[in-house]
Automatic annotation (TrEMBL):
Bilayer-crossing regions: 68-88, 94-113, 120-140, 146-166, 187-208, 220-241, 253-274, 286-307, 319-341, 353-373, 394-412
Keywords per UniProt: Membrane, Transmembrane, Transmembrane helix
UniProt key word Membrane: yes
Organism: Paenibacillus ginsengarvi
Cell membrane in keyword set: no
Name this protein carries in UniProt: DUF4153 domain-containing protein
Length: 413
């Protein structure tokens, strides 16, 4: 090997072949060749290649350990905080929505730790989390429409704040927002996979204790499951942010498989609706389900777009996404008409105003994405234009969620 390296010192292709065939033997023999020819530029490059890799791995390992330790601390704190909040919820001293503060602040803290933002962003995040928590617990614990709407929109607002922590000082850049959306899709896949494993463990544990005549279900769900569900969210965030190959390799395939299935299901559903004569203008529950479908389709479209990447070549997935956009616009148009009809016929309520607002926002977003897709399919722009239509609109949803969360209880109570 020593002679072979020296003999092929001017043959980069052969050196690469030798390295790939027997990498360990090549590394051991390289030092002799390097001593014999210290002035060789080719061997100098090989020296840096072989030794820099080891140094980079050491630095990465140290960083990995540091991040792992911080993640572990946050996971334990999230689990403990969730269990404490659950106790006060059971005592009916606080509203159940407070459970989100057992998870999202700790995920946000992890993002801040990994991507230290400016002091302005840090103080903004801290103050908004604190203000929203205090405000939420000053509200009366009543089950009226405006309070329920506040509970529904609060997690959306906090999710946007978490996105601000993830993007850090690059919050205005589309690629940073797109990375946050991708992380959310991969997080859902990984968390669901880990949660299924957790459920299997729970069933096994319950059964084992039943064999000895003990029913620990209440204790187990209150303490172990609540703690584990919150801690698992931090662990999943850590694994996805560390480029876990499992979630990143599965996510694009799920997007490609799920989109056509949703399209077929949605078409069948709409045809069935026309056949049975359901009317969203008169049936309130059906109108709500219609809006639920709209939100689901929008989520599928965004997930598919974020996982498609910046591939210039058009594929069947792009045409499926465009068809989903058209269907979503039809659904949104019907829902919007029904809401306006109900407002004019039955008067103003918090629910109707909230649904009207979100439908108008979704309509504008769908039109923007569809126009970008049309230009892409006509070879006038690249896929980045479509992704911009998704990422640049995210703050609008956050502002609407904040508006509903903080003003509806004051306006309608």
């Amino acid at each position: 090997m020593n002679n072979s390296i020296i003999e092929n010192i001017a043959n980069p292709h052969e050196l690469e072949r030798m390295f790939r065939k027997e990498p360990e033997a090549f590394k051991k023999s390289f030092s002799y060749a390097w001593e014999q020819h210290p002035d060789s530029k080719i061997l100098a490059v090989w020296y840096e290649r072989l030794h820099f890799k080891e140094k980079a791995n050491t630095e990465k390992a140290n960083l990995f350990q540091k991040d792992f330790l911080f993640m572990g601390i946050l996971a334990i704190l999230a689990g403990l905080c969730t269990r404490i909040l659950l106790y006060f919820t059971e005592q009916e001293e606080i509203a159940p929505i407070n459970l989100v503060y057992g998870v999202l602040p700790f995920i946000t803290a992890y993002f801040v730790f990994n991507n230290t933002p400016s002091k302005k962003i840090f103080y903004t995040l801290a103050s908004l989390f604190l203000i929203s928590g205090v405000y939420m617990n000053l509200l009366p614990m009543e089950q009226n429409d405006s309070i329920i709407l506040t509970y529904i929109h609060l997690p959306i607002f906090l999710w946007v704040l978490s996105g601000l922590a993830f993007t850090g000082n690059e919050y205005g850049k589309g690629n940073a927002r797109l990375a946050y959306l991708k992380l959310n899709g991969e997080f859902c896949i990984l968390y669901a996979s880990m949660a299924i494993s957790g459920m299997l463990l729970t069933v096994l544990t319950m059964q084992l204790f039943k064999f000895i005549g003990m029913d620990i279900s209440e204790f187990y769900f209150k303490n172990v499951v609540s703690f584990g569900a919150a801690a698992l969210a931090i662990v999943a965030t850590y694994l996805v942010s560390k480029n876990l190959k499992l979630a990143k390799s599965i996510a694009p395939y799920i997007a490609k498989i799920f989109s056509p299935l949703v399209l077929v299901t949605l078409l069948a559903y709409l045809i069935t609706v026309l056949g049975v004569g359901k009317n969203p203008f008169l049936d309130r529950d059906f109108l709500l389900s219609f809006n639920g479908i709209l939100l689901s389709v929008l989520a599928v479209i965004i997930f598919s777009i974020t996982e498609s990447g910046l591939v210039e070549k058009k594929s069947i997935s792009d045409y499926i996404n465009f068809a989903l956009l058209v269907l979503a616009l039809i659904i949104d148009g019907i829902a919007l008409s029904a809401i306006v009809f109900r407002l004019s016929s039955y008067g103003i309520t918090p629910n109707r105003i909230a649904v009207l607002g979100i439908n108008i926002l979704i309509l504008a977003n769908l039109i923007w994405i569809m126009l970008a897709y049309m230009r892409f399919l006509q070879n006038k722009t690249g896929p980045s234009t479509i992704q911009d239509a998704v990422t640049k609109y995210l703050p609008v949803y956050g502002l609407w969620a904040a508006f509903v969360t903080f003003t509806f209880p004051l306006i309608f109570n």
